[in-house]
Each structure stands twice: as structure tokens, then as C-alpha cells.
Amino acid sequence: MRFRSVKSQAEHAVSNKVALGTGRHDHRDDGKIHSVGTARGYQQALKGFANYIQKNRFGSLGDATRETAIRYLAERAEAVSQKTLDLDRQAIQMHLGERLDVVKSARVTILSTRSYTPAQVQRIAASQSERNSLATKIAYSAGLRAHELLTIRREEERAPSSHREWSTRRFLGRDGVRYTVEGKGGLIREVLLDKALAVELESKRLAVPNQIVDRVVRYSQFYNIGGGRTWSQSFSAASTRALGFSNGAHGLRHSYAQERMDELQRGGMPYDKAKAITAQEVGHFEKKTTEAYLR
């Protein structure tokens, strides 16, 4: 059965799992919902998940997969509390009928800055292997997520997602070579690397793409550089060695956003317009998430 609205999809999904009037403790593992409050919470959570699926053109809630759920929860982790994230995960795993790994919310940590200075990034990169060092420099230069390093392609090989309206003022004031990466929700966006870094990247071009599985998602990797979970772990270890602390690889995106905001505003651009452009460059379209990078 198909429903047009995300609300109807969520209501239908929950209605199939409701078993009011039976004791929750006696039926803890039956996959059913035994309280009105839980039903209400799950319905709201699944409404958000259905909206994400529809927005990214993955079909409807009935088409949801484990891979889509993992990507959604990873995105939510940047914007919501642990309590909300746990509710989302529980509702989705009830809908899918399979358990999902616990995802940690970044909400607490992003309330204070996680950015690195250029000098700190250089020290971290110098403490890594060649392929992970290059990945760190690229992630910092373009504001990439860990998994996006695995998806870098030449601009002529893949077009940006057409369902978004991209500003012509992206990368204003910067010169370099454009590539594309695949971000959350399958969003394809352009990124810019300075020419020297692009030359270094092209020297790592693979004759045949590697097939990589990272966090249960399969990628075709066209360059022999670090990326995904292994690179992220390498970054944190190198940061601890070089600096005595680690803000995590995601801190490089904070650095990129803050530096771009400074550049654009120094060029005379108003704050709101600068933030909108920066948001597109890092693959975000939600104000709250982008603002978190600017702390």
C-alpha cells in the first residue's frame, strides 16, 4: 500500500506494530509497541525518516533499507540530542525488523569549537602515512567528510545533483580544480582543490577503481588515498601524537566552514549570504547544522 504524505506513511507503519493492552515486560522482544506514548514517539520519528527518504528520492518508507537508515542516523547525529537519536534508531529498527548499531550524537561536542588551525593540520598530516596524509590535506582543503574521500571523482566524470539549486558564487575568491564527491543522502556536490593538491591527487589515480566497503556502504574508489573509518581513526591517532589531543576528523569541516566565512565576509559579503554559500560548499542546506560548524 502506498501513501502520498510522510505522515500517512508513518501512521501506517506504526499501526502495524501496535499491540496495546498487552504487557510490555511480558512481550519485550516481540517487536510490537505496547504504549500510546511509544507509538506517538515512533510515529514522529518515522515521519522524519520518511521525509528524508522522499526528499532524497529513495522512494517511500516502505522502500527503506538498512543502508538508508545508517546514512540518515549519521546525518541526524550532527543535529539532535542522544535521546532523540536513540528514539529515531529504535523506531527505524522496529520498522525494518532488524537491529541497528547505536550512533553517538555529536550535539554536545559541537557546542564548543572543534576546528583546527592550518599549522595544526600540517602537524597532523606530517604524522600520518603518505596516503592518509594526502587525504587529510584534501579533507581540510575542501571540507570533506570521511566517507566523501572515498567518492572523489573528476568534474567531467559526474555532474552535481540536479534536484538542488546551486549558487554560482560558490568558491568565490578561490582558484583551483573542481571535483565532485557524494555526500549524505547521495547528494553529489562540487568541491574545489588548489592546483598543487589536485596534481598530487591525480598522481594517485587508479587504473582500475577499488571496491571499498566502509560502514556497510560500498564505494568505487578512483584514487589511492585514505578515507572512511580507517582514515578517521588514523587522523585521531595522529592528532593525539602531534598535538596531545584530538577533536576528530570532522573538525576539519569546522575549520573549512570558519575559514570560508572569514574569507567571504572580508570580501564584503553579508553574514547570511556567506553562510548560505558556505553551507552549499560543505554539502549542508540546514541552517542549524551549518551554524554548529561556526562556533
Which terms would index this structure?
2 domains, 11 helices, hpI Integrase, Chain A, 11% strand, mainly alpha, 295 residues
- Name the structural class: mainly alpha
CATH topology of the largest domain: hpI Integrase, Chain A
List the strand order in the largest sheet.
1-2-3
Order of helices and strands: HHHHHHEEEHEEHHHH
How many structural domains in the coordinates?
Answer: 2
The end-to-end distance, rounded to whole angstroms, is: 45 Å
Question: pLDDT under 50 segments (min length 5)?
Answer: 21-28
Number of helices: 11
Average of pLDDT:
86
Architecture (CATH level 2) name of the largest domain: Orthogonal Bundle
Please characterize this protein's 3D structure.
This protein has a three-stranded antiparallel beta sheet with strand order 1-2-3. The chain has a two-stranded antiparallel ribbon with strand order 4-5. The chain folds into two domains: 6-96, no CATH class; 112-293, hpI Integrase, Chain A (Orthogonal Bundle), CATH 1.10.443.10. It has 295 residues and is mostly helical. The protein has helices at residues 6-15, 36-55, 66-76, 82-96, 118-126, 130-142, 195-202, 228-243, 251-266, 271-281, 287-293; strands at residues 153-154, 177-182, 188-193, 205-214, 217-223.
